[in-house]
Amino acid sequence: MIARVIPATKLPRSLDVFDYAVPDALLDHVRRGTLVRIPFRSRLIMGLVESLHDSDREKLKSIAGIATPFCFSEGDLALLDWLRDTCFISRGHGLLLMRQFIPRGMPAQTLAETPADVRSPSPELVSFGTTAERNTLLVDILQSRHKKGLALILAPTVSDVVRLLPILRARLGDHSASLLTSASRTSEVQSAINSIWSGKTKILFGTRVSLFAPLPSLETLILLDTERDEYKQADLNPRYDARSLAIMRAKKAGARCLFFSTAPRLQDSLALQEGLFTEPRHGAPRTRVPISVADLSTAWRSGRFDLITDELEEELARVCVRNDSAFLFLNRTGTARLVVCKDCEFLFACQHCRMPLHYHKTENLLRCPSGHDDTQLPSACPQCRSVRFVFRGFGTERVAATLKELFPDARVIEYAKGTPPPAADTGSQKKGMLIVGTCAVPNEMPEAIERARLIAFLAADPLILPHDFRAVERQWQQAARILSHVTRGDARVILQAFHPESLFVQTLRTNDYETFARTQLTERKQFSLPPYSRRVTIRIKRLGRVASVVEKTLSDLKERCARLEPPIKTSTVDDGGKEIRVTLRVDRDPANPSKVLPQDVVELLASLPPYCLIDAEPLSL
Predict the structure, then answer these.
(1) Residues 115-167: pLDDT tens digits?
(2) 68 near 102, Cβ under 8 Å?
(3) HEC string for 429-440
(4) What is the rounded CA–CA span in Å between residue 334 and residue 399?
(5) Separation of alpha carbons 459 and 241, rounded Å
């Protein structure tokens, strides 16, 4: 008997499965889904039996033994196939990701198999206005389920899970709910997995990594705040999107899948229109506090060249008099958004992502907004040696400095991603707390918005970024996420904009996401942008390779794309150093809108060499 085994190791996509002889002593124990120990090169590693067949082949290595009594279900095997076909990695690489979640130290007879693939309902899109409404909806759904199977609740980040877990435990009265995140230690992972498989836990909270765990009797799968980018793993292989993976896992388990969002992704809104998603009847009303709009252009014409209008200054003064707090949102860090040489117009930009560097005056640093290397501001222009620089735009550092001048008796805090939480103000004579922050505040410190009496958007006009077709959509979602944390009944919201009459500002003021989404989808369709077409990015790594090999790979890729029917359009960006980035535009099949990529494109991508890193669902271009 010959077993086709998937080794648990990182291998090229073409080396996916190997044949091993099954010893007579293991014939009654080895079947499809069995985890075994196999000799691989000079060591013993874990492997997964994909299939068994009779053969007379000789000189095959034999399976060394059974690795664990646990057996993978058809749903777990389908997960490995999905990673291979969607993320273009070997199934052995996917098995490595699942290995840490395999139950250990449990009797074999307690391990029940996940049901085979059954018909499941369409994913549901649940909209809400505030986080309080979201939590109420979530509790209602969890209490109304059958409670025989498992409910998996995913949040974008570990901090979101930690913040939500005690709230739901208290409201559900169920303190047996388990936690499973990328920050969990090995002992905590095994404790949670064993508790699930023994039936003690019926509710599991986690992040996207929880989807790689073999789960028994999955009944309900809920994803919170699905508009957030943290559900996408974009920096490491496999470059998967947890939202697509969750739909697949729910389908294989016959489970109910719900997407919670205050401002759904445009592709989810389109899926709802096309009937791929459904909208539950119990959706909460999108209630929010009233919003007033201030015209920044009027203030600038009167000679006030900052982002603090007269109306906002008066409201901030009231906040300080009452010793209250305010949150001012500006999603731009530093003192200036860009630095330009006045003589030759040289723009200081990041060498990695080509984005303009933000200037931080207090440290005299130029920082990449994408988190790449920081550099000191040079004393002279590197191109013409001029010493005359122009600092353009606003950032949180500049706004914080302005607030300290206007309100010297107030406590002014600047908060961005990675900033440590502000210390408690004990014994201080400061009156009022003014927080200037980026989108990191609703993600990492939402209590600052919940306590605030005043919430101000300093510059709400959408940024048009050529590298990011989702820039306007993301800004609307960021604003909606901030507004969802407003809980005080006496809170006031001010929306400042240079173009207050724009559709973006007006739909945000009236909380009319449907009109905004419909308009954006019309524009996307006109220019054939996602979700009306697909984008695939391929990074061809140069490191340690002969230039001719890289160039041949690139030319072969373009030639094969041109031969497809219909031809695939390609665009190339060469950073001149580590890699070449190629973007494929694949037209959407109107007859099968749920299909990510045509089969001929999948075969082309699967045949690329291992040094080509593929992202089939990139966040930006």
Answers:
(1) 444 566 889 999 888 898 899 899 888 888 766 789 999 999 999 999 998 88
(2) yes
(3) CCCCEEEEECCH
(4) 9
(5) 31
